Amino acid sequence: MWCGDVYFWRQSLVMFGAGAHGMATGFLLSFPSVLNPAITAPNTTDIKVTSDEASWITSSYGLTGFVGFLIVPSLMQKYGRKTAHIFINIFMGAGFVMLALAKNAATLYAARCIQGVSMCAIYVLSIIIAEYSNPKRRGYFISLKNSFLAFGSLVCHSLALLCTWRQIAAIAVFINVIAILLTLTWPESPGFCAMKGKYEDCDKAFIYLNGDTPKTRKVLEELITAQKESRENKEMRTKKTLSQICKRFLRKDFLKPFAMVTLLTIIIDSAGRYYNLAYIVQIVKDITGDNSVAIYCSIGVDFLSMVAFWISTYFITKFSRRALVLSCGYFSVLLMFLISLTVYLKSIYIHASLAFIWLILTMILLHSFIVNAGVIPVCFTVSGEIFPLELKGSGTTATGIVFTLLYALTMKCTPIMMEETGIEGTYGIYGLCLGICLVILHFIMTETKDKTLQEIEDEIKGIQRTKTTILQELDTYREY
């Protein structure tokens, strides 16, 4: 039992390091809800911008995100998971330092753009946790990492009642420092070591994290065997022509995961993961007309999101990933359409009762709880599991470019949609997008629950690996 606890805590240390970065990301994503009202207020004595400029400052984080997705996955594949994690924390922390010291709007733009390099952490952290974790723990570890993001958002919104936006940015810097210090305690990922042909280091890291039992040895042998095959295939290809590079992106084991992760990304955006964090205060204020109610409601959304992520750690270990995302997703679509309808009815009957207004707010809170308990955690978990090890770099880059464009589009268009179509139109449009993606996902989603990453990879590639084959290939590797 004690040994089991040791390995659990060793893996947990990785989750806490990723979670610390997730908490800082919660600050980053919620920061516009604190910053924008302060810099757009008519009576502000600090930096002043227009509403349109404020929305560009918010979305600039996504506009430069593709730079991080071009750099960090390659860095992760060449120098390791630890180096990549430290790199993204340095960039995010540097952005918070600039925000705390900003003297003009240009510095705010620059700070958010620099932080955009760390945007790839959305996928990178899930990949890191997936590679370091036992398959039984992988799902709820990734969900716990997401709960740190919700906790960071909760703290950010709560600090808005006590601190200025500059002070909040300064506090966030220390969270990135903690994440870097925790990262220094990790071994390198066993998967990365195997991919690089460092089989001895892979063996040490894997046993350090998982223990030395017949079951863990079998998983280790499968990992080494698969990467030995992959390295031999690479050595046979002396030169990569343009057509060969293009064929890499046309392979089934790339296209299927890419399609799945793209749909999962649209689902995350449509379900409100990011526009709720940035614009929930404005949404509730438009419905109630009361700024104080809007602030406390945003804190309530953050608290429920954090509780939902904790609950999701149980759901993910007990239920099928596929069943969870589809059932909770369809219920979310229903709630979004109901919110759209009730807000529309309120706009017709201007003197709507207080009970009717609270009905709308209750549905918003319930929707936030459902998507964070069953939709978003599964989307992030599957995104970190589904790409084969040799394609994690290129896969993360490709899906990351899609992610950054969608994020920037969502952050820029949401305030425009709220102004042009109202809250009812915004929820209706996003609900429709969510529903369409869920229908498509119903036909292509692969189940990953309780499978090793190698088993998932083999299923994507259509490989059936018997124990005899593994032992034969391992003997070949030892002779080599």
Task: Kindly summarize this structure in a few lines.
With 480 residues, the chain is an all-alpha fold. 83% of the residues lie in helices and 0% in strands.
What does this structure look like?
The protein is mostly helical. It has a single domain (2-192, 253-449), classed as Up-down Bundle (Growth Hormone, Chain: A). Helices cover 83% and strands 0% of the residues. The protein contains 20 helices and no strands. α2 packs parallel to α5 (105-116), α3 (65-79) crosses α18 (392-444) and α6 packs across α17 (354-385). It starts with a helix and ends with a helix. 50% of the residues are buried.
Q: So what's the overall shape?
A: globular
The count of helical stretches stands at 20
Give me the CATH fold name. Growth Hormone, Chain: A
Topology as a string of helices (H) and strands (E): HHHHHHHHHHHHHHHHHHHH
**Structural class of the secondary elements?**
mainly alpha
CATH class label: Mainly Alpha
User: How many discrete domains?
Assistant: 1
Helix and strand arrangement:
Layout: H1 2-40, H2 51-63, H3 65-79, H4 81-101, H5 105-116, H6 121-132, H7 135-159, H8 165-183, H9 190-195, H10 199-210, H11 214-236, H12 242-248, H13 252-270, H14 275-288, H15 291-318, H16 321-348, H17 354-385, H18 392-444, H19 453-461, H20 467-479
Helix pairs in contact: 1-2, 1-4, 1-6, 1-7, 1-8, 1-14, 2-5, 2-18, 3-4, 3-18, 4-5, 4-6, 4-8, 6-7, 6-17, 7-15, 7-17, 10-11, 11-20, 13-17, 13-18, 14-15, 14-17, 14-18, 15-17, 16-17, 16-18
